[in-house]
Amino acid sequence: MARALPLYHMNEGADLSGTVMSSEGIDEAEVLRRLRETFDPPIAYPDPQSPAMLPDEGAPALDRSDFFSFAVPLPEDVARHERNRLTAVAKLAKKREREERMEDRRKAAKKI
């Protein structure tokens, strides 16, 4: 039985038992077919049949109806939101109080 031996195994001292060398050459059509497979590009770039892009006519329509749909917030999200809101209100109250004190000091310094 004949067996195929890869080219990289065909070196000095390789076991050639069972291999058969063909006495006839490869057909010219087979050579051309192999060359075409090797060197011809499979597809042209850019693809002439590529789909149209927006806003061109014939472009695929995209359904974005659920893109901005928000899920109902979880209870822990509501609690975190309320906690953050209260913290922000307290910081704002402290800032306003500090600004009022600074304004009072400026007015007192102008009087003197």
Layout: helices, strands, pairs:
Elements: H1 28-39, H2 75-111
In short:
This protein is mainly α. It has helices at 28-39, 75-111. It has a domain at 78-112.
Can you put this structure into words, describing what you see?
The chain has 112 residues and is an all-alpha fold. It has a domain of 35 residues. It has two helices and no strands. It is elongated, with a radius of gyration of 41 Å. The chain starts with 27 loop residues before the first helix and ends with a helix. 0% of the residues are buried. The mean pLDDT is 79.
State the end-to-end distance: 117 Å
Number of helices in the DSSP assignment = 2
Secondary-structure element string: HH
Q: Taking all residues together, what is the mean pLDDT?
A: 79
Please indicate the percent range of residues in DSSP E strands (runs of 2 or more): under 5%
How many beta-strand segments?
Answer: 0
- Please tell me what the overall shape is: elongated
Largest sheet: none
Q: How large, in whole angstroms, is the Cα Rg?
A: 41 Å
Helix content: 40-55%
- The low-confidence runs, each spanning 5 or more residues with pLDDT under 50, are none
